[in-house]
Design brief:
With 302 residues, this protein is of the alpha/beta class. The protein has a single domain, classed as Ribokinase (UDP-N-acetylmuramoyl-L-alanine:D-glutamate ligase, 3-Layer(aba) Sandwich). Helices cover 35% and strands 25% of the residues. It contains ten helices and 15 strands. The strands form three sheets. A nine-stranded mixed sheet has the order 6-4-1-10-11-12-13-14-15, with helices on both faces. A four-stranded mixed sheet has the order 3-2-8-9. A two-stranded parallel ribbon has the order 5-7. The longest helix is centred in the C-terminal third of the chain and has 16 residues. It starts with a strand and ends with a helix. The protein binds alpha-D-ribofuranose. The site of alpha-D-ribofuranose (RIB) has 16 residues, from β2, α1, β9 and α8.
């Protein structure tokens, strides 16, 4: 990979509240620290690669509402080129997030993200010709993810897929994927193999390759991650830190990983760097705002 990264995916506004426990159905409880944060898996991944110094373009859609304008401004403030973002008569994607004990629950209304159609992707072939790597997730229509992956493959890009939130997709998608990056829950849903430790992760990784993906990496929260890269299985542990908010942990990991692969780093080194990026991200509240810059990561690793 080299350094032009195109993210095709979601842009959301996150509405976040912290709570000591989750309410039962019909119950009202008191939370704290309410915040509106810039989020969306696609947008977070775009910010993560841009903060690591990559040239980054975002192909997505927001509403013509206040949230959409602000979300685009936020992306641009980190150097993400948003000129390919569509502005549609639909509400900007909204994620309602409860953070409980550092972990999160998310309910998403995709809103304008649904306007990223296969036809619109086909219209922007120029972006895929510009890109060295294309990063995809499932908060836009899955037909559009398939169209983007096929176009990326035709244009010679490296295709990185974060299959989140897990959806049923055309299995042809996987044959166009160079690296798939699910978390342990997503990997279990995709493969039917419960991922609880390194041995079960290795089985699930092999299944992901059998499905057609060239390489695979499973993030496993407190257990670090497991991967198969060019046929070699590897593992990486966590870097201990006080966890404040896990929102965007996976997104920042993917950004860190792609940026280092772009620089030509060896895969285990890229994974180590990505682990540092996501470690710093979970030590701070929020989504894109919590993702560290390359300078912050360098200071942390030294
Ligand atoms: O991965 C975290 C993101 O998922 C949040 O920012 C939220 O928008 C949801 O899409």
């Amino acid at each position: 990979m080299s350094k032009n990264i195109l993210v095709v995916g979601s842009i959301n506004m996150d509405y976040v509240i912290h709570t000591a426990r989750l309410p039962k159905l019909g119950e009202t409880i008191t939370g704290s620290n309410f915040a509106m944060n810039y989020g969306g898996k696609g947008a977070n991944q775009a910010v993560a690669v841009a903060k690591q110094g990559c040239r980054t373009k975002m192909l997505g859609a927001v509403g013509t509402d206040l949230a959409g304008g602000l979300a685009v401004q936020n992306l641009e403030s980190f150097g993400v080129d948003c000129s390919p973002v569509f502005h549609d008569e639909a509400p900007t994607g909204a994620a309602v997030i409860t953070v409980c004990g550092g972990d999160n629950h998310i309910i998403l209304d995709v809103g304008a993200n649904a306007c990223v159609t296969p036809a619109r992707i086909a219209e922007r072939r120029d972006l895929f010709e510009w890109a060295d790597a294309v990063v995809l997730q499932y908060e836009i229509p899955v037909e559009s993810v398939l169209a983007a992956a096929k176009l990326a493959r035709e244009c010679g890009c490296t295709v990185v897929l974060n299959p989140a939130p897990v959806k049923e997709v055309d299995p042809a998608l996987y044959g166009n994927v160079d690296l798939i990056v699910p978390n342990e829950f997503e990997a279990a849903l995709l493969t039917g193999i419960e991922v609880t430790d390194r041995a079960s992760a290795a089985r699930a990784l092999r299944k992901l390759l059998d499905m057609g993906c060239k390489n695979a990496l499973i993030t496993m929260g407190k257990q670090g991650c497991a991967y198969i890269w060019q046929g070699e299985v590897g593992y990486e542990g966590i870097i201990p830190i006080k966890v404040v908010d896990t929102t965007a942990a996976g997104d920042s990991f993917i950004g860190g990983l792609c940026s280092k692969l772009c620089e030509g780093a060896a895969f285990p080194d890229a994974v180590h760097y990505a682990t540092a990026v996501s470690t710093l991200t979970v030590s701070r509240p929020g989504a894109s705002v919590s993702i560290p810059t390359c300078e912050e990561v360098a200071a942390f690793l030294s």
